[in-house]
Amino acid sequence: MKTSIEEENLQEKMTEREKNLIDLIRKVGHGEVRVIIQDSCPIRVEDLKKSIKL
User: Fold this and answer.
1) What is each CA distance from 4 to 1, 7, 9, 11, 21, in whole angstroms?
2) For residue 29, what are the CA distances in angstroms to 22, 38, 51, 52, 54?
3) Are 35 and 21 in contact (CB under 8 A)?
4) Assuming Cys at both sites, which of 3, 18, 34, 53 could form a disulfide with 47, CB separation 3.0 to 4.6 Å?
5) Which H, E and C letters describe the chain, residue by residue?
6) Non-local CB neighbours of 42 within 8 Å, separated by 6+ positions
7) What is the pLDDT of residue 43?
8) Quick one: which H or E segment has residue 5?
9) What is the pLDDT of residues 32-46, one digit of tens each?
10) How far apart are CA 20 and CA 17, in angstroms?
């Protein structure tokens, strides 16, 4: 279990692009997201598809 200090350190290390990517993933809920990464940093979401199970 992480302490609040460890959680704060994790938040400090996360870039704005990484936060945006996490927000996008949470909003999608289900589907497929292709992420382009350069220098260990997410650059853009190239393809966003939703797949709905019938």
Assistant:
1) 10, 5, 9, 10, 23
2) 11, 25, 10, 11, 16
3) yes
4) 34
5) CCCHHHHHHHHHHCCHHHHHHHHHHHHHCCCEEEEEEECCEEEEEEEEECCCCC
6) 17, 18, 21, 35, 36
7) 92
8) helix 4-13
9) 888 999 998 999 987
10) 5
**Amino acid sitting at position 29:** G
Rounded Cα gap, residues 36 and 51, in angstroms: 20
State the pLDDT at residue 11. 59
Identify residue 12 by its one-letter amino acid code. E
In this structure, what token pair is assigned to residue 48? Answer: 């966003």
The first and second tokens of residue 39, run together, are 């220098």
For 1-54, what is each residue's pLDDT tens digit?
A: 666 777 666 656 889 999 999 998 898 877 788 899 999 899 998 776 766 667
* Amino acid at residue number 24: L
